[in-house]
Design goal:
Length: 391
């Protein structure tokens, strides 16, 4: 008696997912394409497939659990059958339909895809598509200044791409009469091999998967339909871009093959840092140095903005070092057109240096007139220190 559970290496209480995973693993290990010329692997693969056909179907599994292998005989689920196909199938077509049904309808997908490829997501077995193929996409990096990022700019970029051959307009041949259907694959671009009730496909080695053969190649491109060319393109960079952002230039990659569409060009942006402004999102920070007197008495200042303009701000009387002043909507433009960020000005109070004797004398006179209310933070700190040492 065949023990289907032992064949897959699962317990009798295994779930449907556990059975499916076990089958996937076993089938990959013993598949004939991975073990060419090994009759033991082929026999094991048939046993594993038979076990999965039964255990993956709820009704078949119930019959097998209750009556064993004998309970499956005499039906399309049996082992042997009249048509000589594993599992009691009368034809290859029936075997394929049943097998596809067990996998939830996985099939040829319209491209000659094998069932094994559909179930395992390719499984490492390559197949080529006949007909047009999209060209390769490319990427490039463009460096711009801080000001260019704020206002937007236009850059010219030199790229080396495969372009459609102008001499043959991408045909690869001098004329259409110089193109013949591949006799090996009959224009399908693929060749097939049968392994039991599996149909495996691979790219045609004669035409390289194109489905046709060029008998009179174009002299300029040698039959490729494309030539390597240097191109100069203009790139419009919108205002508000930042380092790491990517622009997509559709159709600026390599030309497609056999009439396929061109690939795309992805342009990555690098913004050079500014010596005064610092960007955080759409907000821009600016350190503004002011004198001790300006901080104490207050003043008005003209400050630059990222867009090359200027704005007038009021610095309040008694402004402390490190204070932040916010100017609404004077920061960077949003790259998606959703307004502007803010300009945030950080006050940096400078202590005067290289004082003259007269300046020192005036400061000492001022010091004699100072009162505790002139320095509220200093007063609070001294009181805190006093409490600490008296504790």
């Amino acid at each position: 008696m065949k023990d289907y559970y032992a064949t897959l290496g699962v317990s009798r209480e295994a779930s449907a997912d556990e059975i499916k995973k076990a089958y996937r693993k076993k089938a990959l290990e013993c598949h004939p394409d991975r073990n060419p010329g090994d009759p033991k692997a082929e026999a094991l693969f048939k046993r594993v497939s038979e076990a999965y056909e039964v255990l993956s179907d709820e009704n078949r599994r119930r019959v097998y659990d209750q009556y064993g292998e004998e309970g499956l005989r005499g039906s399309s689920m049996g082992g042997g059958g009249q048509g000589g196909f594993p599992g009691g199938f009368s034809s290859m077509e029936e075997a394929l339909r049943t097998f596809m049904g067990a996998f939830g309808g996985a099939g040829h997908g319209g491209r000659g895809e094998s069932i094994f490829d559909s179930f395992f997501g390719g499984g490492g077995f390559e197949e080529a598509d006949a007909g047009p193929r999209k060209g390769t996409s490319k990427k490039a990096t463009v460096q711009i200044t801080f000001e260019e990022a704020a206002k937007g700019t236009e850059k010219e970029l030199a790229i080396n791409n495969f372009a459609t051959c102008e001499a043959c307009n991408g045909l690869g041949a001098k004329s259409r009469s110089g193109i013949r259907t591949c006799s090996t694959c009959q224009g399908k671009g693929q060749v097939y091999q049968s392994r039991g009730f599996f149909s495996m496909s691979s790219g045609c080695p004669h035409c390289g998967g194109t489905g046709h053969v060029i008998t009179d190649p174009c002299k300029k491109c040698g039959g490729a339909g494309r030539t390597k060319e240097k191109q100069r393109i203009k790139i419009r960079i919108p205002a508000g871009v930042d380092t790491g952002m990517r622009l997509k230039m559709s159709g600026y990659g390599d030309a497609g093959e056999a009439g396929g569409p061109a690939g795309d060009l992805y342009v990555y942006i690098e913004v050079a840092p500014h010596n005064a402004f610092k960007r955080e999102g759409d907000d821009v920070y600016l350190d503004l140095p002011i004198s001790f007197t300006e901080a104490a008495l207050g003043c008005k200042k003209e400050v630059p903005t990222p867009l090359g303009e200027s704005c007038r701000i009021q610095i309040p009387e008694g402004t402390q070092n490190g204070k932040l002043l916010r100017v609404s909507s004077k920061g960077f433009p949003n790259v998606h057109g959703q307004g502007h960020g803010d300009l945030i000005i950080k006050i940096s109070v400078e202590t005067p240096v290289k004082l003259s004797e007269k300046q020192k004398l005036l400061l000492r006179s001022f010091e004699d007139l100072e009162a505790p209310q002139n320095y509220p933070r200093k007063k609070t700190f001294l009181e805190m220190i006093k409490v600490f040492f008296s504790a």
